[in-house]
UniProtKB/TrEMBL annotation, chain A:
Protein name: Methylenetetrahydrofolate reductase
Gene Ontology terms: biological process: methionine biosynthetic process; methylation; tetrahydrofolate interconversion
Coiled coil location: none
Pfam families: MTHFR
Domain of life the protein comes from: Bacteria
Organism: Pelotomaculum schinkii
Protein family (similarity comment): Belongs to the methylenetetrahydrofolate reductase family.
Automatic annotation (TrEMBL), chain B:
A Pfam family of this chain: DUF5981
Residues of the Methylene-tetrahydrofolate reductase C-terminal-like domain: 112-205
Protein name: Methylene-tetrahydrofolate reductase C-terminal-like domain-containing protein
UniProt source species: Pelotomaculum schinkii
Source domain of life: Bacteria
Length: 310, 223
């Protein structure tokens, strides 16, 4: 088996994968990315680089991915449909592949109303499912989106997508996941799981259709530093369900950040031990990336498996 | 006004192929003026569908009604007595009318007979041109009454681009360069100076990019 990336090798080798997420800086300096890569490289299999997350302008996902590569951390480039039409998307992804990036996460992207350029013209020329489909066709059939042949050096990405079990309508979330898998998604990262009961119901439906056998599902977790962060997620972030019990637990904690870490570790252990069909965890430590090694260690996921790419 | 064009009849027939009885609803508004969905077109479409289905050995019963405007609930009330046993409603209005019917009759299958094209005007008999992009942030006072947002394929606000030659647009020789028109008109008005200012970024949040829009007239609303 020839793997396209280390992340694919870990997942297809049957290991419980660990990915994380890095938000690039709002400036043109790479020192922070290098620092974060050094801290994280031994503790995760790959790190997503967000693509102007919440529509706030940041250093590009692809450029940041190259900085990670130079610092021994495998990147997962994110590509939103919000900012680029089909011409720019293909061009940027050819560029990303030429620079050594091998994992790709296809997402619609948050609407620009939430970002720092709310009066921008958005694009959404394709949606995330079309993007997955066309990228896998680029790789497997060597064709551009228009159908024209790619004569040589077709980009060969390990292709991922996202799923949100906490958005509505609930049952349709599983249909949509199936559509993404049908379109060619090989791995799926979920929205941050706080409502475990709902996530279990989601995974039941996923398993009933055998979707966990057709793609690798990584459950998203988010370590929270304070009850305010929990409250913010609960009330201000669309498509999130945060139980009141969690907000109260952080409110009553003597040391909220440690409590947040403890919660996150419990969640990872619970998911790993009790929820069948989950093949890994995606730790989104928003602006708290240096806590990730601690979480990985305490969750019993360190050291990471050694894999060989040929 | 809204310009619409009737879909291919085979496509319309396919949307209701499993129906035995359909109600066709025309609109006496914009689509009557652009001759695509008024009373006359509604009757013609109904008989065309009946003929098609008769030839296919699967007869279709039709009834018709033309509303004064489908985009106004008060004009849809007479339909209450007509939708009855129809398996589907075919709307000949613009997309607004289709959505109003679907909302009013939640248990009915409502389908569009038209493709809604653009906001335009008649330029000669039988021809309509797009004139307004409905962007929610009008700049016609700065461009001599000619809209570059919709009439320039690049929506350039500081045009013309390098593809403009002999007053024609690079994408199609039949398309006038909006910025040539703007230039000529501003020159005739002695206002070329106005075009030398660098135009600021446009606020696209007032357009489709900001999500569905609404207009409120509180003075007209019920308290």
């Amino acid at each position: 088996m020839k793997y396209l990336s280390k992340l694919q090798a870990v997942l297809e080798g049957g290991h419980f994968a660990v990915t994380t997420e890095i938000g690039p800086p709002k400036h043109a300096g790479a020192h922070g990315l290098k620092y974060t890569a050094q801290i994280l490289k031994d503790f995760v299999d790959a790190a997503n680089i967000t693509d102007n997350q919440t529509a706030i302008v940041r250093l590009s996902s692809i450029a940041a991915g190259v900085h990670l590569l130079a610092n021994a951390l495998e990147p997962v480039a994110q590509m939103t449909c919000r900012d680029r039409n089909r011409i720019a998307i293909q061009s940027d992804l050819l560029g990303a592949y030429s620079l050594g990036i091998r994992n790709l996460l296809c997402i619609s992207g948050d609407h620009q109303q939430f970002g720092n350029h709310p009066t921008a013209k958005n694009v959404y020329d394709l949606d995330s499912i079309q993007l997955v489909n066309l990228m896998s066709r680029m790789r497997d059939e060597k064709k551009f989106f228009c159908g024209e042949e790619i004569k040589e050096y077709e980009p060969r990405f390990f292709i991922g997508a996202v799923a949100n079990p906490f958005a509505d309508p609930f049952e349709y979330r599983v249909d949509r996941l199936e559509k993404k898998i049908k379109a060619g998604a090989q791995f799926i990262q979920t929205q941050g799981v706080f409502d475990m009961e709902r996530f279990e119901r989601f995974m039941e439906l996923v398993r009933a259709r055998g979707l966990d056998q057709r793609a690798h599902i990584l459950a998203g977790v988010i370590p929270l530093k304070s009850w305010r962060a929990a409250k913010f997620m609960q009330t201000q972030v669309a498509g999130m369900i945060v139980p009141d019990a969690l907000v109260d637990r952080l409110k009553n904690a003597a040391d909220p950040p440690s409590e947040g870490v403890a919660v996150c570790i419990e969640q990872i252990k619970y998911i790993r031990e009790n929820i069948k069909g989950v093949h890994g965890v995606h730790i989104m430590a928003i602006a708290w990336e240096d806590i990730v090694p601690e979480i990985v260690k305490q969750a019993g996921l360190y050291p990471r498996p050694e894999v060989v790419l040929d | 006004m809204i310009i619409a064009r009737q879909k291919n009849i085979k496509d319309i027939a396919a949307m209701v192929e499993d129906c035995e009885k359909v109600l066709l609803v025309g609109c006496a508004g914009c689509v009557t003026v652009c001759l695509s969905g008024g009373e006359k077109e509604t009757e013609i479409l109904a008989s065309a569908l009946r003929i098609m289905r008769k030839l296919a050995g699967k007869p279709l019963a039709t009834s018709t009604y033309t509303a004064t405007r489908q985009c106004d609930p008060e004009f849809l009330t007479p339909l209450d007595g007509l939708v009855g046993e129809a398996d589907a409603i075919i709307s000949l209005a613009c997309g607004v009318g289709v959505q109003y019917l679907a909302e009013k009759y939640p248990d009915k299958w409502v389908v569009p007979a038209q493709d809604t094209l653009f906001a335009g005007g008649a330029t000669e008999h039988g021809r309509w041109d797009e004139k307004c992009g409905l962007c929610g942030d009008c700049i016609l006072h700065r461009t001599g009454g000619i809209c570059p947002v919709i009439r320039c394929p690049k929506s350039i606000l500081n045009g013309p681009c390098g593809g403009s030659q002999h007053g024609r647009c690079e994408i199609d020789k039949d398309v006038a360069c909006a910025w040539q028109l703007i230039y000529d008109r501003m020159k005739a008005l002695g206002r070329l100076q106005d075009l030398t200012a660098v135009q600021p970024l446009k606020d696209w949040s007032k357009a489709r990019d900001g999500g569905p829009r609404k207009a409120l007239r509180e003075d007209l609303m019920a308290r």
